[in-house]
Structures are given as C-alpha cells and as structure tokens.
C-alpha cells in the first residue's frame, strides 16, 4: 500500500535522481547512489502501480471535470459582478 511516507520517499528519490543527472562529474559513490535510487523507484512504482493509476484516473475522470465546472462558474460570477458593481457605484455616487 502506498503510504504518505512512502510517497514522500519516492518524491525525494526522484528529486535526488534529477539532481544527480545534472552533475557533470560522476564518482563511484554517486553512480552507486543513482543505481540504488533507480532500483528503489522501479520497485516502489512496480508494487504500487495499480494504486497510482487508480489515483490518476480518479483525478482525471472525477476531479478535473469538477474543477472545470467551478472555473466556469467563477468566471460567470465575476462577469455578473463586473456588470453590477459599476451600476451600484453610479447610484451610490449620485445619491
């Protein structure tokens, strides 16, 4: 099961791999660390792939459409407010 702690470790391993890929000078230690990190990432991803894919599909199918609807509603409300607020300001300034 993919826990928060394991996900953090996986993220840290990916960050470290990216950092090691940027280094120009390779040492035996850095190459060994890179191999170890790649093995950890591969093993963790393999054991948790079904759960990771399930999460990704859930977000894509359920949360993304919901966020799109909220974004459209927010734009519409802002449009209505943009029309109504200047009208309110004119009546307040005139009175």
Taken as a percent bin, the fraction of beta residues is: under 5%
Shape label: elongated
List SSEs in N-to-C order: HH
Number of helical segments?
A: 2
Low-confidence stretches: none
* Structural class label: mainly alpha
Structure summary, number of beta strands: 0
| Count of discrete domains | 1
Oligomer: single chain
**Radius of gyration based on Cα positions:** 25 Å
CA distance, first residue to last residue: 66 Å
Largest sheet: none
- How would you state the average pLDDT, rounded? 89
Overview of the structural elements:
- The chain is mainly α and 95 residues long.
- The chain has one domain (4-94).
- 91% of the residues lie in helices and 0% in strands.
- It has helices at residues 4-22, 28-94.
- The longest helix is centred in the middle third of the chain and has 67 residues, at 28-94.
- The termini are far apart.
- The mean pLDDT is 89.
Main features:
mainly alpha, 2 helices, elongated, 95 residues
Précis, in short:
91% of the residues lie in helices and 0% in strands. It has helices at 4-22, 28-94.
Topology record:
Layout: H1 4-22, H2 28-94
